[in-house]
Queue: 2 jobs
Job 1
Amino acid sequence: MEEKLFDKFLFNFLASDAANAADIMEAGSGYVVPGIVSDKFNSVAEAAKKVKELKSVAKVVSIGLGGGGNTANWKKVLDIASASLPGHLNQPFETAAYAKGFLDGKNNSKQLVNALVQPTGEVGKVRLANSGNVLQVDEFIDIAVSLGIESIKMMPVKGTQHIDELIYLTKLAAKKGIRGVEPAGGIDAGNMKAIIEGVKDINIEFFMPHIFGSTIDKETGETIPAKVREIIRIVEGLS
């Protein structure tokens, strides 16, 4: 992954094109992973072309499921990744290990695949996004590690509504050797401080919030560099 703020934090924002990606990466002092979401494209080829465009300015691009974490888009994301080798892609837990094995085997390249789970409202438990099954976090992470999963995405965290669950997940993930945790859903400049403070002392390789709606210009569809800069400055101020 890219260079990290405080050797831990990265930030995922959507980018409409290469120019927007370059602008938000500059605004984010290089701690930004630009991305797309699969449901905004009519075809795999169109999305793969956009990923390759973004990769002209970024080493790593993220492909999201879209539709608020719609697990039905897992295969489309995998097909886009196979055609474009973005470096990072989102998958429900149930398909994450398959996706990583498929990409590593077919393309002889390392792609970081996260595994999406949902909060349950109860610390110590997570819900699998596709099947709806509820597991103890401890048990879930043991399974994830055994499958070679490197990063866990928790969505929707609804800002700070599920922050205690997120912190608990991150602590156990770090303890058991998961490389990263990626929260998403309702994260913005207003709650970023609380989220980062909750995990800043946890020794995990990377923690990457996904910040979409609050930073996007509704008319142009571009992520607003000033909004990105505001979030980075909030986190920088926590040193």
Job 2
Amino acid sequence: MLTAVGASAAVATAILGSAYVMGSEARPVTAEGAATGVTALQARWESVASQTPTYLDTDQLETLRSGGWYCPELESLGFTLQSAEGITVAGRPTLEIVLENDGDTVTVYEQRKVSGVRGADAPPLNAVTGNIVTADGFEHIGGAERDVWVRSGEPWQVVLDSPSVTYTVVSNLPAAAMPQTLSQLVTAEHAQLALSPQVQEDSMMERIIRGLSMIAHPGENG
């Protein structure tokens, strides 16, 4: 009986945990909240990279994070920060982070959408070249919350595009490591997002209720 109760409790905890995450990601963003977020992104960028290119230290990365930039470092995969640089690509503020692990490297270009929203049907940019991905030979893999574009080869390149951020990821890791690398990148983004004051405005219960609604009625939340 105790085992059954324990199992039921574990299942309930897992469901509530999933609902909390889903509810956090689905939180409605008001026009005022979006404007505040964009202002913070711009302000933090200007405070550390008003002139580009410029190398950034760990304190400056924390300054960017405090304004909503994600600055992923993939520590759970054993990577350490090799360098960070603020650059401009096709007129867009771009954070370039180079990570290293025993000779393997992952370079992440983070472009936050702080200067207007790209057209819904327009392909994203490849931050390595400044070209749209279709011009650089990327293949569209698809995706739900974000579009995924892949260019195979050595090194491989992937562009992840969502309404708020575009990542260009370049790595000399084996292609088989690509899914785990990208998954951890998104996990790091969600962890940072959970610390955002805009997310914390919701109570835990509000997020759980919204998440449970999405689980119970998946077709009504597209």
